Amino acid sequence: MHNLFRGGTRSAVSLLGAALLAGLATSCSSSSATQEYAVPGDVCGTEVTRDLLAPLLPAGKKISARPTSAVGTERCRLLVDGEIAFSSSVEKRAANTTASDVASSAYGVDPTDTSADGGRVIYSTTGAVGLVNCPASASAESTLWATVRTSHEVKASAMRAFIEGYAAALSQTDACRTVSVR
């Protein structure tokens, strides 16, 4: 009888442990991280489709934008809960600049990453570069490039979709005229 009781105690302890683990797993999954903030419809003033931006942003409670500029470059950082989660830049380069040239100096993307759009876009799971097709009135001596990067990995297809949409949006703004040649 004593051995039977000991075995019953082990079974009860095992069941209790399993129940606790199941409870913890359920509580963790029910509090799964989400984007509690409203995804912005612009990146520091450049309108973007929320559906393109949302997959690049992490879960969190609050989002804010921090625009900065330097000679020839306009930057935008999106902070989620106070941490930089997304960065973009727009800069003019020489007319003969390629996506590989831009990717070689960009964070989150490498010249050997996947290219698309006839070589005008290079993207990865953490960054992308894309040529902005400025109207004919823009200088023939320069090209405008957009770069983006995230602080975390995302789907490469989401990164490509965003950079293509962002570059298209930039082509409709004053960015083609206002960023000075580097």
Structural description of this entry:
Helix content is 32%, strand content 29%. The chain is of the alpha+beta class and 182 residues long. It has a 7-stranded antiparallel β-sheet. Strands 1-2 form a two-stranded antiparallel ribbon. β3 (63-70) and β4 (73-80) form a beta hairpin. The protein is globular and about 45 Å long. It starts with a helix and ends with a helix.
How many helices? The count is 5
Q: SSE order, as H and E?
A: HEEHEEEHEEEEHH
Q: Tell how many strands the DSSP assignment holds.
A: 9
Spatial separation of the terminal alpha carbons? 87 Å
**Main sheet strand line-up:** 3-4-5-9-8-7-6
Backbone structural class: alpha+beta
Give the fraction of residues assigned to helices: 25-40%
Largest sheet: 7 strands, antiparallel
Which consecutive residue ranges, at least 5 long each, have pLDDT under 50? 9-31
Q: What's the pLDDT, averaged over the residues?
A: 83
Q: How much of the residues is beta strand, in percent?
A: 25-35%
Output the radius of gyration. 24 Å
Shape, per Cα inertia axes: globular
In short:
The protein has 182 residues and is of the alpha+beta class. It is built from five helices and nine strands; from the N terminus they run H-E-E-H-E-E-E-H-E-E-E-E-H-H. The model is unreliable at 9-31 (pLDDT under 50).
How are the SSEs ordered, and which strands pair?
Blueprint: H1 2-30, E1 42-43, E2 46-47, H2 50-53, E3 63-70, E4 73-80, E5 83-94, H3 99-104, E6 114-116, E7 121-123, E8 127-132, E9 142-150, H4 156-170, H5 175-178
